[in-house]
Structure prediction request, 318 residues.
Amino acid sequence: MDAGKRMNKRTKTALSAVCVSALLAANAPALAQENVAAEDVFGDRGYALAIDDRCNLFTDAERAALEASYLQARGALLRGHYAPADLDAYRENLDRQADNEACDGSQANAVQLRVNLAFEGYQRLTDLNFPGTHFSWAARRPDPMQTTEWLIEQETDLLRAGLVRYDDQQSFTIALPNETLPAERQFSQVILVLRDTTREPELYDPTVGGLFPGPETAPWASWTPPDYARRFVWAAGRLNAEDLYTLTGQSDGIGYRFGDNAAREIARRDPRETARIDFLDRRGQPVMSRYFEIGDFGAALAFLRAAPEPVSAEETGG
Prediction:
């Protein structure tokens, strides 16, 4: 039986019960210790978020912690061939269950207490990895924070990508070591290319299930932005030598930072798909492309939002 059918069955029966019982069980794991199946985590956190939507039970940081775990479980289920429509239907079922609970009832109080207690341990985490199909996002909540540093990072053979802190700002950033660059690299513009979900709501697989090779510089990539439905985010500027060295440990190579909307756009995409960085010549034609896996970037962002308020290195004398 395929995964979508399994989810349909669970939506009607077992999972709707698991989402409540597992969350309230005496030995339920803390938010950061996913020792139960992704299905159960998806239900647990989904139910807690659903009842919070109606009753406002949690702080912003607690809510972000639940979202991080919920999105990571959703990503795991999608990579395990569960149908998005089935996951959406299950979440709607959780919302209906939550609508039947009193905000001051025993079940809502028990959910709130369990999340409050689990969050105390979760907030002490400073690092968490979010594995994807081929690569992982490494999320960091450093304290004290440095002037320039990776907060979320993915490293492929040809590219480093992620969210970087620059003083009091955060920007999606890419960096390429010099040895991965072609000898002739005459480009004048850099863009992030994503699937336009309005024009193409479904994932696009140019390999047709592996019958054809993936991109030359990313043979691992299956789901890539289609040429007929692309959304562009333009780079906001090139990294200076000091920032590039701080982020890569190298004095050569290139790096670019993108506008505020880049991270939001990436987080909205399906965790199974791939994003592309195009380097364009003066005529707007790509001269080279690099790829990274979207994975659970949205979950990593939520992990950052759940952090306690950090202090700067200057405040600690660092």
